[in-house]
Amino acid sequence: MLGRWSRCLSPGSWCSTQDGALCSTSTKFNTPWRRFFTSMPVYAIIVANFCRSWTFYLLLISQPAYFEEVFGFEISKVGLVSALPHLVMTIIVPIGGQIADFLRSRRIMSTTNVRKLMNCGGFGMEATLLLVVGYSHSKGVAISFLVLAVGFSGFAISGFNVNHLDIAPRYASILMGISNGVGTLSGMVCPIIVGAMTKHKTREEWQYVFLIASLVHYGGVIFYGVFASGEKQPWAEPEEMSEEKCGFVGHDQLAGSDESEMEDEDEPPGAPPAPPPSYGATHSTVQPPRPPPPVRDY
């Protein structure tokens, strides 16, 4: 019996019914890869991820060199200064999430507008503050505005970084992998460009580095503001490839048939047929207790 039903009773394909029966539904779906790469809301997320990753890798790799070459910081003492912007961002991210949830739950703004507000607001402020950092001649001003720039980028996490769940909840993991993969490319390109632009280690060269970072973010603001969406896309529901319904099988029938099939395999040829399986207490092989002997009166 088990072999007969093993093809349709696959793990994860059983569903319970009221009468204790089992049904098997094996369904396969197509992943809409073509729809992924022809959807502008998907490209909005990818572009935003690339733009944010550009500044992230710029600061991660080149921030110590910037403070050393422009402001004369010792490379051994720049660690705390480099970590401070990201510490502030860690505080801002949950605050931005609470603000976004408040705007959506109270229906003050639509999901699309909330995502655009958080992402474009965070990116726009970061881009503007990075310009101040690049063209600043004061050590204190550069550090302060750099902390503010990275801090404001934390609001963008409530924009593009959770947008996958809005447009395609079923495929959010795939879209996250694609956008993060493209974003990581900036970690390969950015150090090459920075190294080529700062050969002489002058202030003017670093100004162009931060100017490019700002322009990248402004580009992300425009692209995301135009093409982003917070609504579930039409292709987000899976297209059915095949469906196989195996009907209903009772628990008793499945168990009894399985046992009889196993007994048939163990019995030698020519053996008398086994009695049919019994269900419930129809008869008992246990002898009832004997009654006590009668008591005699003397």
UniProtKB/TrEMBL annotation:
<keyword id="KW-0968">Cytoplasmic vesicle</keyword>
<feature type="region of interest" description="Disordered">
    <location>
        <begin position="235"/>
        <end position="298"/>
    </location>
</feature>
<dbReference type="GO" id="GO:0035249">
    <property type="term" value="P:synaptic transmission, glutamatergic"/>
</dbReference>
<dbReference type="GO" id="GO:0030672">
    <property type="term" value="C:synaptic vesicle membrane"/>
</dbReference>
<dbReference type="GO" id="GO:0005886">
    <property type="term" value="C:plasma membrane"/>
</dbReference>
<dbReference type="GO" id="GO:0043005">
    <property type="term" value="C:neuron projection"/>
</dbReference>
<keyword id="KW-1133">Transmembrane helix</keyword>
<keyword id="KW-0406">Ion transport</keyword>
<dbReference type="InterPro" id="IPR050382">
    <property type="entry name" value="MFS_Na/Anion_cotransporter"/>
</dbReference>
<keyword id="KW-0813">Transport</keyword>
<dbReference type="GO" id="GO:0098700">
    <property type="term" value="P:neurotransmitter loading into synaptic vesicle"/>
</dbReference>
<feature type="transmembrane region" description="Helical">
    <location>
        <begin position="42"/>
        <end position="66"/>
    </location>
</feature>
<dbReference type="InterPro" id="IPR011701">
    <property type="entry name" value="MFS"/>
</dbReference>
<feature type="transmembrane region" description="Helical">
    <location>
        <begin position="117"/>
        <end position="135"/>
    </location>
</feature>
<dbReference type="Pfam" id="PF07690">
    <property type="entry name" value="MFS_1"/>
</dbReference>
<feature type="transmembrane region" description="Helical">
    <location>
        <begin position="78"/>
        <end position="96"/>
    </location>
</feature>
<feature type="transmembrane region" description="Helical">
    <location>
        <begin position="141"/>
        <end position="162"/>
    </location>
</feature>
<feature type="transmembrane region" description="Helical">
    <location>
        <begin position="174"/>
        <end position="194"/>
    </location>
</feature>
<keyword id="KW-0771">Synaptosome</keyword>
<keyword id="KW-0532">Neurotransmitter transport</keyword>
<keyword id="KW-0869">Chloride channel</keyword>
<feature type="compositionally biased region" description="Pro residues">
    <location>
        <begin position="288"/>
        <end position="298"/>
    </location>
</feature>
<comment type="similarity">
    <text>Belongs to the major facilitator superfamily. Sodium/anion cotransporter family. VGLUT subfamily.</text>
</comment>
<keyword id="KW-0050">Antiport</keyword>
<dbReference type="GO" id="GO:0060076">
    <property type="term" value="C:excitatory synapse"/>
</dbReference>
<keyword id="KW-0812">Transmembrane</keyword>
<keyword id="KW-1003">Cell membrane</keyword>
<dbReference type="GO" id="GO:0005326">
    <property type="term" value="F:neurotransmitter transmembrane transporter activity"/>
</dbReference>
<dbReference type="GO" id="GO:0015293">
    <property type="term" value="F:symporter activity"/>
</dbReference>
<keyword id="KW-0472">Membrane</keyword>
<dbReference type="GO" id="GO:0034707">
    <property type="term" value="C:chloride channel complex"/>
</dbReference>
<dbReference type="InterPro" id="IPR036259">
    <property type="entry name" value="MFS_trans_sf"/>
</dbReference>
<dbReference type="GO" id="GO:0006814">
    <property type="term" value="P:sodium ion transport"/>
</dbReference>
<keyword id="KW-0770">Synapse</keyword>
<keyword id="KW-0769">Symport</keyword>
<keyword id="KW-0407">Ion channel</keyword>
<feature type="compositionally biased region" description="Pro residues">
    <location>
        <begin position="269"/>
        <end position="278"/>
    </location>
</feature>
<dbReference type="GO" id="GO:0005254">
    <property type="term" value="F:chloride channel activity"/>
</dbReference>
<feature type="transmembrane region" description="Helical">
    <location>
        <begin position="206"/>
        <end position="227"/>
    </location>
</feature>
<dbReference type="GO" id="GO:0005313">
    <property type="term" value="F:L-glutamate transmembrane transporter activity"/>
</dbReference>
<dbReference type="GO" id="GO:0015297">
    <property type="term" value="F:antiporter activity"/>
</dbReference>
<keyword id="KW-0868">Chloride</keyword>
